[in-house]
Amino acid sequence: MPPPADIVKVAIEWPGAFPKLMEIDQKKPLSAIIKEVCEGWSLGNHENFALQIADATNFYITEKNRNDIKNGSILRLTTSPYQTAVQLHERIQSSSMDAKLEALKDLANASRDITFAQEFINLDGISLLTQMVESGTERYQKLQKIMKPCFGDLLSFTLTAFVELMDHGIVSWDTFSVAFIKKIASYVNKSAMDTAVLQRSLAILESMVLNSQDLYHKVAQEITIGQLIPHLQGTDQDIQTYTIAVINALFLKAPEEKRQVSLQLYIISCCNCQHFCNVIRSPTAINDEMAHQLYVLQVLTFNLLEDRMMTKMDPQDQVLHCVQLPGCSSSCSLSQNHVNPAVDFTQIPPGMLALDNMLYFARHHQDAYIRIVLENSSREDKHECPFGRSSIELTKMLCEILKVGELPSENCHDFHPMFFTHDRSFEEFFCICIQLLNKTWKEMRATSEDFNKVMQVVREQIMRALTLKPNSLDQFKSRLQNLSYTEILKIRQSERMNQEDFQSRPILELREKIQPEIMELIKQQRLNRLCEGTCFRKISSRRRQDKFWYCRLSPNHKVLHYGDLEESPQGEVPHDSLQDKLPVADIKAVITGKDCPHMKEKGALKQNKEVLELAFSVLYESDEYLNFIAPDKHEYCVWTDGLNALLGKEMTSDYTKSDMDTLLSMEMKLRLLDLENIQIPEAPPPIPKEPSNYDFVYDCN
Questions:
Q1: Which residue ranges does the record assign to the ELMO domain (predicted)?
Q2: Are 305 and 353 a contacting pair, CB within 8 Å?
Q3: What are the residue boundaries of the structural domains of the chain, listed by start?
């Protein structure tokens, strides 16, 4: 007979004694269980003891997480969180440097547990650590020169413990003094600093800036762009990532006028730095966090264009009338409107940004500009490519492609390396594309009536070239050379043939007949994916300290198993390691987007469109929710489809529509294949005779 569900069989360790096998009744209070364990080893004062998970985490067992204990778990009897906090609070103040170092190392490990962290913070432990950083650093550094092996990690463990404690969100960032900020900033500003100390210091500065507007101003006074740039020149990708994260945080919180100046200085510094290219073109693969930070920096860089993009030209402004392009006679005009050129630039977007691009092209690529002007002046009027109108519409298109003005997404890693190789990357991007537009215009033999068609082709050429993620602007340009108008026509023809849709009545009837089969196939695929499970991220204020949890459907499709993880898993997570369960029969509804409870909470998440599009919740019992934020759009569609299928509802995601179109098209083509050299009989073939025996049949039941 199997044991009751509330009974868990575990092993419990105690230093210096043999482990005990014990059955824990989950209905009993935890204090009663600890008392029973202590009495087994003749230990008094059971209130001074607690149970921990005996693994690398050493997390304390509490009433909240006790259900995570599973059969076969190994637990450890240890001092209570309060007693441990008191002991470490005293030990880190030891006069012995060896003892202090060991205590700080233990504190850094213990601080990852929120139960311990709460007790240590209640003892004013955060203040003690900040005082140690403010007052003891110089002494440690002097001792470090004498006894480097002993003191090399002293400051590192102090800052690590501080970061871990603050990451729990118990203490407000607004409580820290200017002296503490100056100390942390000084570690970043030093040219030679221990890698671990530098990494923790950068993480602290990033969190300060992101979590407090007041601290932003204080940090901005201590850190300059020039002091951060050298940290990008090394080979440590973690240091580079943290450095770019601090820069991004400073720009996100900066006032608009200061942001413009700071980011321009940053871009110029980076592009003049030979080692910055190593960040983009490093032989080591760029990890997800670095890719995200580069994406954020790319978005912030292009968002500097928004002001000019949304600025209209004053029609009464006489300056434009006097603008003379280099290498051109007075007859060469920026505008299509010769009476009042300013009228062309009243459309927003692209506003004055189009004029900026035109002037940049004419001044920095004078030969190419003159060639375009001369080519068009020698054509018939109807075949002339209008430079002014082309520049305005192209600028608008490029702003749309690069999403100028939109906030960065929490989950996006889509950056383009080529934009980090030039200090005027957008303008250079425009110069390449305006030459492409003129070339495509010639290839299409277009007239003014074909303008929109030409722009559609140019957009397709640009998007296809960007998809290949060129490493430089020159590489982007060469990719465009291979995407001529003729090549685009071939690609379109090929895609059209692959997507050909037959509209005859028999074909439509066949489609209707096949469609339920395909939908059932998609449903089974979704349910199979839910059975494999997915790792979801709990978004925190500091991305590199993210918590993870895993959820998967049982093979019989009756239960959702889920539970927290310490790190992102490699492969599937077994059911028995996920202690929390939710019967599918208890699920009432699936809620998506802004209607989800975790999207209605206060905070930055609800402001982010990308996160809203990835959020969904499962409603069960009476107003109880299991909240999800999918890692990407694909997983969002898989899970919402799968959950709706479990509830007997229609699968309506974009992913389902795409799969239906693809699979239906493939199935139709397979069924309608031409049969060559095969004579189709008028009557169906005869049914063969039954075999003499059925020994070859295998009964799967």
A1: 292-466
A2: yes
A3: 7-79, 172-285, 309-315+330-497, 526-658
**The residue type at 186:** S
Write the DSSP string, 118-133: HHHHHTTHHHHHHHHH
Check: CB of residue 368 under 8 Å from CB of residue 431: yes
Amino acid of residue 407: L
Domain made up of 7-79: CATH architecture: Roll (3.10)
User: What are the C-alpha distances in Å from 642 to residues 79, 514, 584, 637, 653?
Assistant: 46, 21, 12, 8, 10
Q: Contact, 592 vs 643, CB < 8 A?
A: no
**Alpha carbon 452 to its chain's center:** 35
CB 438 within 8 A of CB 388: no
Cα separation of 18 and 33, whole Å? Answer: 18
Give Cα separations from 676 to 532, 667, 673, 679, 683 (angstroms).
43, 19, 9, 8, 19
| Tens-place pLDDT, residues 514-562 | 999 999 999 999 999 999 999 888 765 554 456 788 999 999 999 999 9
Q: Are 89 and 33 in contact (CB under 8 A)?
A: no
Query: Can you give the pTM of this predicted structure?
Result: 0.70
Residue 57 CB partners (closer than 8 Å, separation 6+) = 112, 113, 566
309-355 per-position pLDDT tens digit: 998 887 666 555 445 555 444 434 445 555 455 666 778 889 899 99
524, amino acid identity: Q
Which helix H or strand E contains 426, and what residues bound it?
A: helix 425-444
Tokens of residue 44, six digits? 């008094």
Pick the CATH number of 526-658 from 3.40.50.2300, 3.40.640.10, 2.30.29.30, 3.40.605.10: 2.30.29.30
